[in-house]
Design goal:
The protein is an alpha/beta fold and 217 residues long. It is 53% helix and 14% strand. The protein contains eleven helices and seven strands. α4 links the parallel β6 and β7. α3 runs parallel beside α4 and α9 packs across α10. The radius of gyration is 17 Å and the shape is globular.
Length: 217
């Protein structure tokens, strides 16, 4: 079984080394690169093309959210998960809009971090429980017009095929690629390809934006 290749972007040495050790000791992940600055990461990540990038937000002279926004269009297949101390609503939604597919806090246990990486690759949108609660409450409390503004206005949901709409409905139910594939009798990789096409057609970067746009929330 192919290991999940992971890059780390973290400017605090102790934290970066701790994350490196977690990845290196994992049975399912391999460390593809580790960077202490955004300037180095923005050059090397497109060359390495890892499966997953653990991205800090505060990186000294650069911002991890801005890096995701710059890197995601270059290789949309690379998955970004913010790994940060920030719990503010604004940063969470800025990260999701930029193209992050997960948001986990640094205080999470190694086991939860590795589970989140696996869930991310399986098509999930892993978030620390505190972050997930903030996302749910934010959508619940927002006026309709404000919620819709979270996604690009030029997305056209009518361009989706019947199969793509079925897959998006199952994404909205919180199902991962393996579960969707089993229900539709297709491989997880085929589901993944459909999801990429959905994101392209809706002009979004992740599951949260796609579901939000499709259902007009």
């Amino acid at each position: 079984m192919k290991k999940i290749s992971v890059c780390i972007v973290e400017d605090v040495t102790d934290i970066r080394q701790a994350l490196e050790q977690i990845i290196e000791l994992s049975e399912n992940c391999s460390l593809a690169g580790s960077f202490s600055s955004g300037e180095e990461a923005v050059v090397k990540i497109p060359l390495i093309k890892p499966d997953v990038v653990l991205m800090d937000i505060g990186l000294g002279s650069t911002n991890g959210i801005d890096l995701v926004k710059e890197l995601k269009p270059q290789h949309p297949e690379i998955l970004y998960m913010m790994c940060t101390v920030y719990e503010e609503d604004e940063k969470i939604f800025d990260a999701l809009r930029a193209g992050a597919s997960g948001y986990i806090l640094k205080k999470s246990s190694p086991a939860k971090l590795l589970d989140a990486i696996g869930e991310l690759v399986d098509g999930g949108a892993p978030m620390s429980s505190q972050i997930a609660l903030k996302v749910v409450n934010a959508f619940k409390d927002m006026p309709v017009q404000e919620t819709i503004a979270l996604t690009p206005e030029n997305a056209d949901t009518t361009v989706l095929t019947r199969r793509e709409k079925m897959i998006l409905e199952k994404l909205a139910q919180g199902k991962i690629y393996k579960e969707i594939g089993k229900e539709l009798d297709i491989s997880p990789e085929t589901v993944r390809k459909h999801v990429y096409h959905i994101y392209e057609k809706l002009h979004v970067n992740n599951r949260v934006e796609a579901v939000n746009k499709f259902y007009g929330r």
